[in-house]
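User: Continuing from earlier, I have the next pair ready.

Assistant: Great, send them over.

User: Here they are, in order.

Assistant: Folding the first of the pair now:
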Amino acid sequence: MTPAEDGGCPLMNDLYEEMKRRPKRKNQRFRIEMILDAMDQEDRESLSAALIDEDIQHVRVSEVLNEHGYEISVNAVRNYRSMLRQRG
């Protein structure tokens, strides 16, 4: 049973219904994919290697990218790496 069907609070019903009515969007691209597209070949290869290297922490990837003008959060790096692991 959904929260709206459960007779929850009116605000919850309104929020739930609004979220449910919104149209589905096409899949959003990962921020890191946009960064990779903007890089030259050498930097792209370097970042790709760093992303698959489990010895390099998410925070280090984020810090270095931000220092080089590519704005990205630690969570965005973590999410992208998680997706890479799932794809195998």
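And the other member of the pair:
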Amino acid sequence: MQFFPVLVVTQCFVTATWALVMIGGFLLSRVDDVPSE
């Protein structure tokens, strides 16, 4: 049970990182679709 908090923090960190990657990829794809003028 001593490692339970560590697992929770790790899971939250992984989820947050995955969300940032997905959002970043989405924004990059949106920027690529817009013609640069």
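Worth noting for the second one:
The CA atoms of residues 29 and 35 lie 12 Å apart. Residues 4-33 form the longest helix (30 residues).
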